[in-house]
């Protein structure tokens, strides 16, 4: 009797194996091996089940924080929308009704509680996965790449989008949370957590943030020249450079107020009622729920968070294998995004892909004197240039 193999086992067994897989990458491999699975009507349901299995294994602190942030916002919205039925016995001598402060009794869901909502949590990951595939397609198109992304590359970018979405959704004011002390926010996690990531992973977060901002940067400069002076003066109180406000500030404000799902609705042309809030978003940020208090927060709110939760230990940097192009130099002990001449894109991809694209391990380092000269040169080049886009009547403080 011939031994059973994956090709010879009954279809029912194959379906059972498929449903038990822990990652989409494994399902794709099985799908490519067993051609008859492609003909099974239940394959869509199997793919959904496997994605949920994968979500169970990838409940990162950021995903847990995102779920709890959205849960709190939903409970808060339901309480605000609920009809008030005051009883005369619940009124104080001045006629105010008890409970008018709209406070929400909220206990964060721990990992075990979240597992009972795995389908809903998986829907959050489907949104991040949509952006991950958009991100990969964008970069592969520029490289004419035909080798599909690996599971490690997808997970790396997925996690970065999830962290970025989490920062967008945290109800900082409602829960009195300092955005730079999220690790101690027990109201989101139920306990203290470690949100620090490696320098390389922080660079991935910077890359996905830059990509996401580029997808909505056109929304800022839609009609700035048609604004009246009063509107422009109001914006100028926050940002002395209106050009940077429209190009960088407005995308940041959109991220703060719409989240990743809202941005997907915008870029896919499927707006819902909340998208109409874009109008006040562009006209004046103070009309929205969340708006920047000063120019630094306006322009650097997300990059500051990326840097805050970056592990900047020299040991972590030494353990990272840097890659460079043929003519680039590598500075020992420096984060990827401040390497003179290095391409930030190296942090997204696996070593094998970088070798294929012509990169090589960075083994040559600058001498101390060269390092000082190159660092000065790089810092000069990376400094924000004077503004040349603002109109003379805008009175931009960043113009020469």
Automatic annotation (TrEMBL):
Name the record gives this protein: F-box domain-containing protein
Chain spans, region Disordered: 80-101
């Amino acid at each position: 009797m011939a031994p059973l193999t994956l090709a010879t086992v009954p279809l029912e067994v194959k379906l059972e194996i498929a449903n038990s897989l822990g990652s989409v990458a494994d399902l794709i491999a099985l799908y490519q091996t067993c051609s008859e699975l492609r003909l099974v009507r239940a394959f869509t349901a199997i793919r959904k089940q496997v994605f949920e299995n994968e979500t169970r294994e990838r409940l990162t602190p950021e995903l847990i924080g995102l779920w709890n942030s959205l849960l709190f916002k939903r409970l808060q919205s339901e309480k605000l929308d609920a009809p008030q039925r005051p009883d005369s016995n619940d009124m104080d001598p001045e006629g105010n009704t008890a409970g008018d402060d709209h406070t929400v009794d909220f206990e964060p869901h721990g990992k075990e509680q979240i597992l009972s909502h795995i389908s809903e949590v998986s829907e959050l990951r489907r949104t991040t996965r949509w952006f991950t595939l958009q991100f990969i397609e964008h970069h592969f198109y520029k490289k004419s790449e035909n080798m599909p992304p690996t599971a490690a590359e997808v997970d790396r970018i997925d996690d970065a989008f999830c962290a970025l979405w989490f920062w967008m959704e945290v109800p900082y004011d409602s829960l009195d949370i300092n955005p730079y002390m999220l690790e101690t926010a027990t109201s989101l996690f139920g306990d203290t957590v470690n949100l620090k990531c490696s320098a390389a992973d922080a660079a991935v977060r910077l890359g996905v943030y830059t990509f996401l901002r580029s997808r909505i940067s056109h929304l800022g400069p839609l009609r700035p020249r048609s604004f009246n002076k009063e509107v422009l003066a109001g914006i100028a109180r926050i940002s002395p450079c209106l050009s940077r406000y429209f190009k960088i500030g407005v995308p940041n404000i959109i991220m703060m107020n719409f989240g990743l799902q809202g941005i997907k609705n915008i870029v896919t042309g499927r707006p819902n009622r909340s998208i109409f809030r874009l109008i006040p978003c562009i006209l004046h940020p103070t009309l929205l729920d969340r708006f920047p208090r000063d120019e630094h927060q306006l322009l650097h709110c997300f990059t500051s968070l990326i840097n805050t939760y970056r592990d900047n230990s020299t040991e972590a940097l030494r353990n990272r294998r840097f890659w460079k192009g043929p003519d680039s130099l590598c500075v020992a002990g420096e984060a990827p995004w401040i390497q003179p001449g290095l391409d930030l894109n190296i942090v997204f991809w696996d070593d094998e892909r970088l070798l294929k694209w012509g990169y090589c391990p960075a083994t040559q380092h600058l001498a101390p004197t060269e390092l000082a000269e190159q660092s000065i040169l790089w810092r000069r080049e990376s400094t924000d240039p004077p503004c040349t886009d603002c109109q003379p009547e805008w009175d931009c403080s960043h113009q020469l």
